[in-house]
Amino acid sequence: MSFQSKPSVLISRQEIEVTVNRLAGEINNDYRDKHPVLVAVLKGSFIFLADLIRRLDLPLEIEFVRLSSYGRGKESSGKISVVQGLSTEVKGRHVLVVEDIIDTGLTTNFLLDYLRQKEPSSIKVCALTSKPSRRKFPLTIDYLGFTIPDKFLVGYGLDYDEKFRNLPDICFIEEEQ
Ligand code: PRP
What we know:
By secondary structure, the chain is α/β, with parallel strands linked by helices. Helices cover 21% and strands 31% of the residues. The termini are close together.
C-alpha cells in the first residue's frame, strides 16, 4: 500500500482551535472540583493533549500510556499489549482518556479494560476525531471533536509510517492509483 506524498487539509488549524476550546469548556464544566487524571495514548495524542490542557482551568495530572498493536501500517492487527503503563495509582480517581482518533475502537476498548482493573471512580473518553463507519468495537465517546469520513488522516499528531505528525492541520492522504 502506498500513498501520495502531498497531504490535503481536511480540518484546518483554525477549526481545530475552535473545537479544542469547546471540548475544554465542556471538561472544565464537568470536572470542576474533581482533580482528574488525564491518560493520553502515545504517540498520536500528544499535540491534542498539549493544546487541550492549556485550556483546562483545573488541577489535573497527566499520564501517558504506550500501547503496541502488532504490525504497523494502515490497519491494526487486532492484538494489543501495554508497552508503558500508568506510573501512578488511579484507584478512586476520575480518569479521562485522551485520544487523537478512534477508528475501529479496538485501542480504546483495550485501554478502558486495562483502566477499569485499576478501579478508578470514573472513566470518560475524550477524542478529537472519530470514524464511526470503521467501528468494530462499540464505545461511548463522552467528549468528541470531529466525526470524520473514512479517510487516512495525518497531521496534528497523526502519522503515516511515523511521518507528518508535525503538520499543523488535520490532513488526509490518498492511495496512489
Ligand atoms: C492510533 C490512534 C489510536 C488508534 C485508534 O494509534 O492514536 O490510538 O490508532 O485506532 P483503533 O480505534 O482502530 O484502535 P496508532 O496505533 O496509529 O499509534 P500512534 O498513536 O503511535 O500513531
